[in-house]
Design brief:
Layout (H helix, E strand, L loop, with lengths): L5 E7 L9 E7 L4 E7 L12 H4 L1 H5 L9 E4 L7 E4 L2 H19 L15 H4 L2 H9 L11 H11 L15 E5 L3 H4 L4 H9 L3 E5 L5 H5 L2 E3 L6 H14 L5 H7 L3 H15 L1
Helix pairs in contact: 10-12
């Protein structure tokens, strides 16, 4: 019996993205190369489609300009600097030698690991490299270029969780999309939003910009940049003033809400 030439492999998208899509990769068994990539149609979130970036992921993987081997600079830095391809063994020996030299001369603080998520999953992002840098006593990186402010706000708002689960969207009657363009950056939430709309849910988009998400929403609020906090306090003022807040939830699942509400209301009154 003739054996099939291709096989399908289920994998997870490596990008730093909340969708964490389920992918089906078709591999040519004779060459070992991937020849096709698509979203897993059996996955409840991916639903068989991918974002435009990952749709073309094989073009990146097999691009002739992709850097697959280490290079070292020859000559001075700048426009005249050139790079030469070297073996992995040579590169590892050179790096380990430089690390050892700096540790002996200047200590661990002289070494600054510099990396961000990009196409790294959690194993690559918080994996063995962190153990190594901890062991040598290297400097720590604040990692504030991208999401530090948003992460801090999320922790104070939701706690350790990153936010509502995507399938909770279908159970709501009012959906507020605050500063997020899901139609472009969180495409797998869109089918859930569309279904929620069919079920009668209203969608409010809060964003200074007009986006693909604002167009699909029932109501688009456009606060001036930097005024989000004032809008949030105003909303809280109306909720508390009309006794619409869930006191039981606040008591059981939050800390500091009484003092926060008291001070916030005092500031609003003084402002008037």
């Amino acid at each position: 019996m003739r054996q099939p030439k291709f096989k399908n492999i289920n994998v997870t998208c490596p990008h730093d993205c909340p969708d964490t899509c389920s992918l089906v990769v078709t591999v040519d068994k004779s060459s070992g190369k991937a020849v096709k990539l698509k979203g897993n149609d059996k996955h409840p979130i991916t639903k068989g489609f991918l974002c435009n970036k990952v749709n073309h992921y094989l073009d990146l993987v097999y691009n002739k300009n992709r850097v697959l081997y280490p290079h070292v600079r020859i000559g001075p830095k700048g426009s005249k600097g050139k790079f030469k391809k070297v073996s992995w063994d040579y590169a590892l020996k050179l790096i380990s030698k430089n690390i050892k030299t700096n540790l002996e001369k200047y200590g661990g603080d002289s070494i600054q690991p510099y990396s961000y998520s990009g196409t790294l999953g959690m194993l690559g992002y918080w994996g063995m490299s962190e153990r190594f840098w901890n062991k040598v006593g290297a400097s720590r990186l604040g990692r504030t270029i991208c999401i530090a402010a948003a992460s801090t706000a999320g922790i104070y708002t939701y706690g350790a969780a990153c936010g509502p689960a995507i399938d909770e969207v279908l159970k709501t009657t009012l959906i507020i999309l605050w500063g997020t363009n899901v139609a472009s950056t969180h495409v797998h939430m869109v089918p859930f939003l569309e279904e929620a709309k069919k079920n009668g849910a209203k969608i409010v988009c809060i964003d200074p910009r007009e986006t693909r998400t604002s167009v699909m929403s029932h109501w688009h609020l456009q606060p001036k940049p930097g005024t989000d906090a004032a809008l949030a306090l105003g909303m809280m003022n109306e909720i508390v003033k009309n006794n619409l807040h869930d006191k039981s939830f606040l008591k059981n699942h939050t800390t500091g809400h009484e003092d926060f509400i008291k001070k916030s209301f005092l500031n609003i009154i003084l402002a008037k």
